[in-house]
Amino acid sequence: MPQDIIFDYGTFDENEQVSVGDYKDETTSILQDVFDHVVKSLQINKKKMQEQYNKNLRFIDYTVGQKVWVKVKHYKTGENRKLAPRRDGPWTIVDKLPNGVNFRVENSRKQQKTVHHDRLSPFIAGSAPSEIGDNNIDNNQSSQHESASELESSDRSDSSYSASEDS
Question: Which of 85, 86, 98, 123 has a CA positioned 20 to 30 A from the CA of residue 77?
Answer without folding.
Answer: 123
